[in-house]
Design brief:
It contains 14 helices and 25 strands. With about 550 residues, the chain is α/β, with parallel strands linked by helices. The protein has 3 domains: about 250 residues, HUPs (Rossmann fold), CATH 3.40.50.620; about 80 residues, Glutamyl-trna Synthetase, Domain 2 (Glutamyl-tRNA Synthetase, domain 2), CATH 1.10.1160; about 220 residues, Beta Barrel (Ribosomal Protein L25, Chain P), CATH 2.40.240.10. The radius of gyration is 31 Å and the shape is elongated. The protein binds adenosine-5'-triphosphate and magnesium ion (MG).
Length: about 550
């Protein structure tokens, strides 16, 4: 690759970083952070941010911190702190010894606020939250200055200290930055820096009753951690002047962090708001945060997605400056692509139809060799039992089949994968006319599914031996929402009205006996059906397989090759 083509393939954040390195900014160091708020489980949008932050650090020999943005004591939880770490690790990233909490900086952030007050750049305001917002003005009209704006520094220091000591009730005072009530950027109109909250914090307990606002905590936490490139989503673009203004007030080093915004990931057929995901969990539309239909990392893990496929997806979608919606099919494609190469194939019948092979010896079972993954010989082979009575899928038989139906029909011959050619000789029905079983004959010379004399069969079916097959609970998951944009609901309804009523169907499947010991999280392709993953609650006594994703029928190709 020439220098030129290399440059072209950089995304805009890489370009900024490379320029900063060339200019020796921050000693040419690259230090990023991933800053989740522990108020929910991580989702696929977070995965994009994780891949970006940890990925850039790795690419430029830098570091990436994990920082819990836990400045809001109300909705945060230890359960979330734990799940977030587990999910980042599973995705394949490592913050090493750099796990931080914004709450660890409360003392420092307080000291920075004192600096701000001493510089005459902040004041303690007695307006209520409602009054403050009523006086903020509009983007075209300047706001009204607070009557407390020119309170003397000493008084501000005294009141702020007493706020910290817990002398006042919530809402009585708020510390505000003194910037510009006429700024066209509303965020610059004397934003709040600290407010009183008499709430216990999950880490600092009752030590604090004043809490820093997000804008104050975020940029200064970056500064404390010596972050060089602070990547965040586009909605923070309008906060950037404030980010820089706050830094200007307290910074006394050459080093300086820089905020860069990128487009958040939106996926079709997917909800990504944590508030809405929480609603799905709390109102039991799904079975917890890790329900395989959730777009959470833990949900995808349980569903059978791999970290590699998610990383590859993040890579493929790239980094944009403008909001867009990515087709969920692209994510599904990444999963298929990865699993196709990696997982063992096996045969399972989910909707069984019994076939008795009349000319096969009664009581005999033979072991036939099956290939574990035709894409990868090194994955070897396995033996599967074959006998006189087998199951095929109901859908693979038609009594009055049209010509183009290349599966089983009366008088027609098909190949049983890795086994034999069979011909349907008889359809057996009950008194109501329902098909109960088929009768067939097999050609012993076609062992292994190979044609003995060059004669061709069009169809190749999967099957299991009825006696040896093991039963398993099969959970057929599908997309959780019916609409491309689940947010758009009918008048008076919300996004839950778009839930797909068939997003989960539980059935019993018949599997190759070799799957008896399949361990939770192990993954398989059920030939011609899809990819499946053993559920975390699966046991030897009660096997549970989750459908990860359906398969595009790839058998047409196989037939052509033979
Ligand atoms: P909240 O509304 O609760 O703040 P959030 O989605 O911003 O939700 P955070 O925990 O604050 O959640 O996000 C952590 C990081 O992940 C942030 O840097 C945020 O910008 C990034 N992030 C969140 N959602 C997405 C998304 N859909 N695409 C890309 N990055 C995202
Ligand atoms: Mg956020």
């Amino acid at each position: 690759m020439t220098e030129n083509t290399k440059k072209k393939s950089l995304h805009f954040i890489q370009s900024i970083i490379e320029e900063d390195i060339r200019n020796n900014k921050n000693n040419s160091k690259v230090h990023t952070r991933f800053p989740p708020e522990p108020n929910g489980y991580l989702h696929i949008g977070h995965a994009k941010s994780i891949c970006l932050n940890f990925g850039l650090a790795k690419q430029y020999n830098g570091l990436c911190n994990l920082r819990f943005d836990d400045t809001n004591p109300v909705k945060e939880d230890v359960e979330y702190v734990d799940s977030i770490q587990e999910d980042i690790k599973w995705l394949g990233f490592d913050w090493e010894d750099r796990k931080y909490f914004a709450s660890d900086y409360f003392e420092k952030l307080y000291e920075f606020a004192i600096i701000l007050i001493k510089k005459g750049k902040a004041y303690v305001c007695e307006m209520s939250a409602d009054e403050i917002s009523a006086n903020r003005g509009t983007p075209t009209q300047p706001g009204k200055k607070s009557p407390w704006r020119n309170r003397p520094v000493e008084e501000n220091l005294n009141l702020f200290e007493r706020m910290r000591k817990g002398e006042f009730e919530e809402g009585k005072y708020v510390l505000r930055a003194k910037i510009d009530m006429a700024s066209p950027n509303m965020h610059m109109r004397d934003p709040a820096v600290y407010r009183i909250r008499n709430i216990e914090h999950h880490r600092t307990g009752n030590k604090w009753c004043i809490y820093p606002m997000y804008d104050w905590a975020h940029g200064l936490s970056d500064y404390i951690e010596k972050i060089t490139h602070s990547l965040c989503t586009l909605e923070f673009e309008v906060h950037r002047p404030l980010y820089d203004w706050f830094l200007d007030q307290v910074i006394d080093t050459e080093y300086r962090p820089r905020q860069i915004e990128f487009a958040r990931l939106n996926l079709s057929f997917t909800i990504m708001s944590k508030r809405k995901l929480l609603k799905l969990v709390e109102e039991k539309y799904v079975d917890g945060w890790d329900d395989p239909r959730m777009p959470t990392i833990s949900g995808y893990r349980r569903r059978g997605y791999t970290p590699e496929s998610i990383r590859k997806f993040a890579d493929k979608i790239g980094v944009a400056k403008r909001d867009n919606v990515i087709d969920v099919a692209l994510l599904e494609h990444s999963i298929r692509e990865d699993l196709n190469k990696k997982v063992k194939r096996t045969m399972a019948v989910l909707n069984p139809l019994k076939i008795v092979i009349d000319n096969y010896p009664e009581g005999q079972t033979e072991e036939l060799e099956a290939i574990n993954n035709p894409e990868d010989e090194s994955m070897g082979t396995r033996m599967i039992p074959f006998s006189k009575t087998i199951y095929i899928e109901k859908e693979d038989f038609m009594e009055n089949a049209p010509k183009k139906f290349f599966r089983l029909a009366p008088g027609r011959e098909v190949r049983l994968r890795y086994a034999y050619f069979i011909t349907c000789t008889k359809v057996v029905k009950d008194e109501n006319g329902n098909i109960t079983e088929l009768r067939a004959s097999y050609d012993p010379a076609s062992k292994g599914g190979k044609s003995p004399d060059g004669r061709k069969v069009k169809g190749t079916l999967h099957w299991v031996s009825a006696h040896e097959a093991i039963k398993a609970e099969i959970r057929l998951y599908d997309r959780l929402f019916l609409n491309e944009n689940p947010e758009v609901a009918e008048e008076g309804k919300d996004f839950t009205s778009n839930i797909n009523p068939h997003s989960l169907e539980k059935i019993t499947g018949y599997l190759e006996p070799g799957l008896q010991n399949a361990q939770p999280e192990s993954k398989y392709q059920f030939e011609r059906i899809g990819y499946f993953c053993v559920d975390k609650d699966s046991t030897k006594e009660h096997l549970i397989f989750n459908r990860t994703i359906t398969l595009r029928d790839s058998w047409a190709k196989i037939d052509k090759k033979k």
